[in-house]
Amino acid sequence: MPGKRQPTALVEANGKKHLSRPEADERLDREVHVPPPERALPPKWLPKRLHKEFREVGEILLAAGLYAELDRDVLAQYFLARDRWLKADKKAASAIQANDEKLAREWTGVQGTYFRQARQCAESMGLSVTSRCRIVVPAAVVNAAGAPSDEDDEFTRRLRARQDAAMEKAGS
Question: Are 34 and 72 in contact (CB under 8 A)?
């Protein structure tokens, strides 16, 4: 059974399948490309107190290549659900402190609903570790030390040797 369809750039970067130029062009024509926006702007319906945080997280996602204008509502829904979860958490905590089991049960149910909504939005946006791990990225290996030069000091030479050894071990 074939796996999930991968973007052409990923197929080419993996190097496991050779695509001729016409094949690659045909695949690229069938792919949907959404240009990234210049800035992450919150929707008008999002409460003003959440705008600053929306812009901060939106800019991080934008820099990581995980944000498009189409994602604006999902990210805003995440912040709204998280805000409501925090309020429900406070209500549930005060009901627990007051030993009111019925009210505590009601608020923990509401709290759970908002938590599930926030988690679902977070996963679809790549805001959780597991959702970022599912993002398929080409295995392009970049050596952090850069190209060797004649002026390298002893620390850089040792660092480069450790990196080379780690890359050999990972490749085998």
Answer: no
Contact 10, 19 (CB under 8 A): no
Separation CA 15–CA 91 (nearest Å) = 55
Q: Which residues contact 168 (CB under 8 A, 6 or more apart)?
A: none
Based on the fold, state whether residues 27 and 70 are members of the same structural domain: no
Q: How many domains does the chain have?
A: 3
Q: How far apart are CA 42 and CA 140, in angstroms?
A: 34
Q: 7-26 pLDDT, tens per residue?
A: 776 666 667 677 788 887 88
| Tens of pLDDT, residues 63-99 | 888 888 888 999 999 999 999 999 999 999 999 999 9
**Cβ-contact 96, 74 below 8 angstroms:** no
Residue 132, judged by CB atoms within 10 A of its CB (0-12, 13-18, 19+), counts as middle
E runs forming strands in 30-165: none
Query: Same domain, yes or no, for 167 and 87?
Result: no
What residue numbers bound the domain in which 128 lies?
Answer: 37-135
Contact present, 22 and 29 (Cβ < 8 Å)? no
